[in-house]
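OP here, attaching both records as promised.
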Amino acid sequence: SPVFAGRMRECAAALSSYVEWSLFEVLDDAEALERVDVVQPVLWAVMVSLAELWQSYGIKPGAVVGHSQGEIAAACVAGALSLDDAARVVALRSKAILALSGLGGMVSVALPVEQVRERLTEGLSVAAVNGPSSVVVSGDVAELDALLAACEADEVRARRIPVDYASH
């Protein structure tokens, strides 16, 4: 879509002041997209560009919300942040997250949040409640390993999220 592509070019230009890579060059680079300091700004650019495309078809949101880099995209789409300010926030935030790499992790647990809270130890906390039975826990790697083992023993579906930092 010319509208989507145009907004992606604008996002690429805005990001170029804050990152050392090109938005269009990393789109088909699986290795680069594994890096949090790349994937989060890329996802932000896609979200902002999709919103522009939808608006070109007459879809005007009454409200926008987001989670993580989606919050930054929502603020940009709503006009609370300029494109340049949003690019700066998403790029610098993703670099800060990269600095936390190796200091923790996250696990998705298929239980209601109240039941997950009962399983938390001192080194763990609820990171996100994604649904009635979908909770993300973040924290210390050893504590997450223990949580995974306990969930497996109780036949509760749980899986490690492939990040090496605790977030949200």
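Record two, same layout:
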Amino acid sequence: MLQPTEVSSQPTVNSFANMIATPEKQPGDCASKGCGSNEQEVASSIQERIANHPCYSQEAHHHYARMHAPVAPACNIQCNFCNRKYDCANESRPGVVSELLTPEEAAHKALVIAGKIPQMTVMGIAGPGDPLANPEKTFRTFELVAEKAPDIKLCLSTNGLALPDHIDRIKALNIDHVTITINMVDPEIGVKIYPWVHYKRKRYRGIEGVKILHQKQMEALDLLREADVLCKVNSVMIPGINDKHLEEVNRVVRSKGAFIHNIMPLISSPEHGTYFGLNGQRGPTTEELKELQDKCDVGGMNMMRHCRQCRADAVGLLGEDRSKEFTKEAIMEMTPEYDLQKRKEFHAGIEGFRSKLVKAKASGQTTEKVAEAGPPILLAVASKGNGLVNQHFGHAKEFMIYEVDGVKARFIAHRKVDHYCLGGYGEEGSLENIIKAISDCKAVFVSKIGESPKEKVRNAGLKVVETYDVIETVALDFYKQFIGQLQVA
């Protein structure tokens, strides 16, 4: 075990990395490729395209950051789960921004952030409306960034309605990653989600509009596949409406070449002002979400389980939104420090660190694992990134949940929580909520924890493990001890 040490968010090759030898390449090893795919040959063929994209690669999201440019306010459909808000700094969900940017301001911001956060590899446009309902602003932003920062991947997130009209511009700008939100493939279910669709300067209500949306989404999937553009499909799980239907959605989008499927929980609270929120529509439980994701995790489809349902102006690592540091007023006073060579060197350091982690994981999973898979258990992990247990219990804003069966440790979800260390104010209530959020886990892994919360967590039936090491390694070690104690008992 490594001793706890404070680690910079910049993953330079430090004492930890030096303790792990560089691994040999493992052809077709999906774990080393970082995609989470069930099809090893798929991972091998597209590795270069996803290796540093935090949304398309579960492994990459530990190390690489993204930026969303809020340049697209208009939308061409209405969703019952959406309420686009502006100047809303305290909410974290899709469709929310604090301020809009012009394409020129967004390009300037991308260059500033690429210098300030060199692990930022992706600039995406995801709203706050639909990027392709604002095509000129969207494509002008992409053009400026592509010209000035050629190493930054361009990423687009859309409902797909207008995508067939813009596929040529998408290809011309080398936008290699496109996300389409598809919540149904049966218009009869879609009418419960979409009140209206605006297409070709006309508003269509009810089933007529939903049929148009469905047709265009299916056409968009075909066009992206033919253009060899990687496609991620987002789906919002809405209990009682499309929860039983999303397995069929998964089957259809998989058949049309989608690379990864992200099934997200409905965010539904009255204060958000959405139709669903105001009418009491509940979101799924963590158990319901996991059950559906597990059912869809078949047939070669990658499941995205590390999504944070980001704001349309998010900046930084997934789970670490730094947008408040980069307001329009602040960035317009900053001089961009974009340096392509320095960024390449920084990314090479990240990849060296990742290679060492791969070998550490492989070592832990081959020398200490049990002979065959046993009953799975869940473990909660506090992590600041880099694939390590490296965060203090009281500083965690979320816990990563791993399912461990003795042969493998598999990331399955993240669960947001309130800080426990609040300077004395509200700490008891916060701790209760944290324990409730991870109550189905057998243990919690942290770099450090105070004696008082440690006792309370233990009293709630969870073991507490203080360590600083590779997540998969310590998870498998714990499983072996856990099963051994059960057998003795």
